[in-house]
Write a structure and sequence with these properties.
The protein is an alpha+beta fold and 166 residues long. Helices cover 23% and strands 35% of the residues. It is built from four helices and nine strands; from the N terminus they run βββββαβααβββα. It has helices at 53-58, 75-89, 100-107, 147-156, and strands at residues 2-4, 7-9, 12-15, 18-32, 35-46, 63-69, 119-124, 129-133, 139-141. The protein has a seven-stranded antiparallel beta sheet, with helices on one face. Strands 1-2 form a two-stranded antiparallel sheet. Helix 2 (75-89) packs antiparallel against helix 3 (100-107) and helix 2 (75-89) crosses helix 4 (147-156). The radius of gyration is 15 Å and the shape is globular. It starts with a strand and ends in a 10-residue tail after the last helix. The model has no long low-confidence stretch (mean pLDDT 92).
């Protein structure tokens, strides 16, 4: 396994019947006034390792992002962060960005405040997204052809929050 910020991530995991390998680890920081706050540690799992942002975004293969929170975050701040990430990274030349508000509407009931130690797992299928939020059962976000890519673009679009996941 690999460690970052005292959070352990296994080297491999199996999801949807496929073995995925840990591609990289990153820490999401947010600047608040003059202080950088560590928000969460994340591990990206792919079918095979890659450092090609475009390929990860577009290959249609199974991916999973595991996050563990290092800081408490309110539901409002989490929703705002999703909205900002989608809007900053959804490239209308490549994706149907009109799906962003629909995707946000589907995420809203799943998201709750995050406390230190809470884990979120996001599995990216070719078009759908499966979210496991803390101890809740998995929820499938479906209905938009680009949902998976829009959500993945939050980390792999033109202004990603974490450089280290590659």
């Amino acid at each position: 396994s690999a460690m970052i910020q005292d959070v352990s991530f296994p080297d491999t995991l199996t999801t949807n019947g496929k073995k995925l390998v840990l591609n990289g680890l990153g820490v999401r920081t947010k600047k608040v006034v003059f202080v950088k706050i560590k928000v969460y540690a994340a591990g990206l799992y792919l079918e095979e390792k890659s450092n090609q942002r475009e390929s990860i975004l577009n290959d249609g293969k199974l991916k999973r992002l595991d996050m563990q929170f290092l800081h408490d975050v309110s539901k409002e701040k989490l929703i705002h962060a999703w909205k900002e990430a989608f809007e900053n990274n959804c490239e209308s030349s490549k994706l149907d960005c009109k799906q962003v508000p629909v995707l946000l509407d589907k995420i809203n009931p799943i998201v709750d405040e995050a406390k230190v130690g809470d884990r979120i797992q996001i599995t990216f299928l070719p078009s759908d997204v499966v979210v496991k939020y803390k101890d809740q059962p998995e929820k499938i976000i479906t209905g938009g052809s680009d949902f998976s890519k829009i959500m993945l673009s939050a980390w792999f679009g033109k202004t990603p929050p974490d450089e280290d996941l590659l």
